[in-house]
Structures are given as structure tokens and as C-alpha cells.
Design brief:
The chain is mainly alpha-helical. The protein is 56% helix and 7% strand. The strands form 4 sheets. A 3-stranded antiparallel sheet has the order 1-9-6. The protein starts with a helix and ends in a 5-residue tail after the last strand.
């Protein structure tokens, strides 16, 4: 999207990511992540290795459901979303053959069902917000603003505002679900992979967590989350070192001089490599070094032309703070509650495209519960 239509949509979505809204999401994220890690540790009592990618994928899908539309999904609706999102993921990686029985056909119909389910959540949220309840999920924060604009339009005798129908809202929330799911799963897997390879960084995270939270079982508050400066530096370095979506297509809006000798023609589709960009400009770019994001170095500002994880300009990701919070919460909880050992196999660190990037083995590990005095 471009121009006024794009600006208008971003304006309507901005209330979804205010400090107040993010604070509500932090509690939901923390509870869901903690529940899954505790379940993983119960599973780990059976001394079998686990593939962390599969566990993180399941955890992320539940977290997204809880944060985006939590109160409005029945158990059967949650199970249907899980099945449909799996079909969508499979179809995304197959040839686009729209014939019954083919993965792309199944994915197309799965997306339609997902949008209908999310549209129904929008309808329920509108009714609940009309009754004056406090927002408890992303959908609620959106519907508060939508209902206000719908009321103003009705009083003025104008048509309903754009992006206010249940189906339109369902389509946008599906976009959020897609954006929040696979990229975050990739990054969580790389957190465990890279911290296992960098034990000194892992210990510094644990020390920061001990200083901020004496009791590892106490809930993490938004205020405590903001104190986790080193953990956030580590998260940013994970994102730089292994950007989950390595190529994001763009369209040239104008003739763009890419170099002194080449101009990208207007209308051309461009696939910039975020992976290559992350290893340009930064000091010692092939070294995993969270300190590059410290207040003394601020390399995300010094080399901002290469720090493109969340895009840039008018299309910069609206949910980047939500995503970073999610990664910090997982890192804080996982490092404090669990110990893990990677199972080394030939080629396990090679990058696999799914389409986001993960280690070839999906991060195969032995997990165990960690006692805080360790």
C-alpha cells in the first residue's frame, strides 16, 4: 500500500501498539511462554532429545491466538486455527496449483476459514466493547477505536469507515498472525542455538535476570522488562546475526539510483537480502557480539542503513516492539528455568529455509530443569 490509504490504515492500527496495549500483551505473552516451558521441562524428564523448532512453533501459535483474539476463541476454534495454519504453511512452500488435492488449493481454503474465524472474533469484540468492558487483547484495542469512528460516521450520515467490517478486520488480523508466527519461531530457535554456543553471554543474561527478579517464578512486569537492557541487546544481536526473513520483496515507486551505474526502474520488484545487509557495515560483523547494541556503541543507529530487520521508512513494522518484547520474555524465562545441550550432528548449523531460516536440525537439544543456584 502507498499514499493516503496506507497512512490511514497505519493510523487506525497505531492504538494496537501503545504502551498500555503492549503492557496488556506482556502479561499474556509471559503466561503462555512460561506454561509451555514448564511443559517442555516435564517432557524432558523422559531423557529423549527434542526439536526446539517444533515446540516454539506450537508455543508461538498459542501466544498469537491469546494476544490477538484470546477471549473469543473456543477450544474447537483454536484447534481449527492450528490445523488451518499448518495447511497454509505447507501450501506456502508448494507450487501454486489450484486444483483439489494440491497443497496450494488446501492452503487457499484454509486461509478463507481462518479469516472467517477471525472475523467472528471481531464481531464478538465489538459487542463486548460496546458493553463497556476493558480491552484484554489486541482485537479489543482495535475495536474500541473502530466503534468510535463508526459512531462518528453514523452521526454524520457518512458510510462506515474503511477497514471496519468484520471480514476486513479478520484479513488484517490474519496478516498479524502470519507476521508474528514464523519469524518469531525462527528467532526463538536461534536464541537457544547461539546462546548454547556462547556460554559467557548466557551467563550474563542469567546474572541480569537474578538482579532484576529474585524469584524466578514471579511474573515479569512491563517495568521489569524495560530493565532487561543486556537481554535486549542479545535479542537484537540474534536478529542481526540470523535475520528470520532473509528477503522481503519491495516495489520501486520511482526510478531509484541503486549505484552510480545502475538505476532501478520504477515498478520493478526488488528482493534485498537482509542476511547480506546484516554482515555489512557493522564492526566485526561475523562475530556474535551483543555489546554492539550497548549505549556506548549503538551500532543499530550508526549502521542504520544495514539494520533493516523491521524495514525502514513509512513501511517500518508496526509490531516491532511487540516482537522484541516476545523475544526478551522467552530469553529471560528460558535461560532462567532451563538448561540445554545441543546434539551435534553433521551440518546441524547449516541454514534451512522454511521460508524463514532455522538451523538444519531444528535445534535438537537435551533439556533439563535448572535450579537457580546453578
Amino acid at each position: 500500500m502507498f499514499g493516503e490509504a496506507h497512512k490511514d490504515l497505519r493510523r487506525r492500527l497505531a492504538p494496537l501498539f501503545t504502551l498500555k496495549a503492549l503492557g496488556v500483551y506482556v502479561s499474556i505473552q509471559e503466561n503462555t511462554i512460561r506454561k509451555h516451558i514448564i511443559r517442555w521441562l516435564e517432557m524432558a524428564k523422559n531423557p529423549e532429545p527434542v526439536q526446539l523448532r517444533l515446540l516454539c512453533r506450537e508455543m508461538n501459535l498459542e501466544t498469537s491466538q491469546n494476544v490477538f483474539v484470546g477471549p473469543y476463541l473456543s477450544a474447537s476454534a483454536r484447534a481449527q486455527i492450528t490445523r488451518d495454519y499448518y495447511l497454509f504453511n505447507v501450501g506456502l512452500m508448494r507450487l501454486p496449483v489450484y486444483l483439489p488435492g494440491f497443497s496450494f488449493y488446501k492452503a487457499t481454503h484454509a486461509v478463507q476459514r481462518l479469516i472467517r474465524t477471525l472475523g467472528d472474533c471481531a464481531s464478538q469484540s465489538k459487542q463486548r466493547m460496546r458493553e463497556g468492558h476493558e480491552p484484554t487483547c489486541l482485537m479489543d484495542f482495535w475495536m474500541v477505536e473502530t466503534l468510535r469512528e463508526m459512531k462518528e460516521a453514523e452521526q454524520a450520515g457518512s458510510p462506515p469507515p474503511p477497514h471496519s467490517s468484520d471480514m476486513e478486520i479478520g484479513q488484517h488480523v490474519f496478516d498479524f498472525l502470519f507476521a508474528a508466527q514464523d519469524a518469531s519461531t525462527s528467532s526463538l530457535v536461534w536464541v537457544a542455538t547461539l546462546l548454547e554456543q556462547n556460554p559467557k553471554v548466557l551467563e550474563k543474561i542469567r546474572e541480569e535476570q537474578r538482579q532484576i527478579r529474585c524469584d524466578p517464578n514471579s511474573p515479569i512486569t512491563p517495568e521489569q522488562l524495560r530493565e532487561m537492557k543486556y537481554t535486549e541487546m542479545v535479542v537484537k544481536e540474534v536478529l542481526r546475526f540470523r535475520p528470520p526473513a532473509t528477503m522481503v520483496p519491495h516495489i520501486a515507486n520511482v526510478d531509484f539510483p541503486l549505484t552510480d551505474s545502475y538505476v532501478v526502474p520504477k515498478g520493478a520488484i526488488i528482493f534485498p537480502s537482509l542476511l547480506e545487509s546484516s554482515f555489512q557495515g557493522f564492526s566485526n560483523p561475523h562475530t556474535f557480539d551483543p555489546e554492539r547494541f550497548s549505549p556506548d556503541r549503538v551500532e543499530d543507529q550508526v549502521y542504520k542503513r544495514n539494520w533493516l530487520l523491521f524495514g525502514a521508512g513509512p513501511h517500518q513494522c508496526l509490531g516491532q516492539r511487540y516482537a522484541i518484547n516476545h523475544l526478551i520474555l522467552f530469553t529471560a524465562l528460558f535461560c532462567r528455568l532451563a538448561s540445554w545441550t545441543r546434539i551435534r550432528t553433521p551440518g546441524c548449523d547449516e541454514i534451512m529455509y522454511t521460508p524463514t531460516i532455522v538451523p538444519k536440525d531444528g535445534c535438537l537439544i537435551y533439556l533439563s530443569a535448572r535450579h537457580d543456584e546453578e
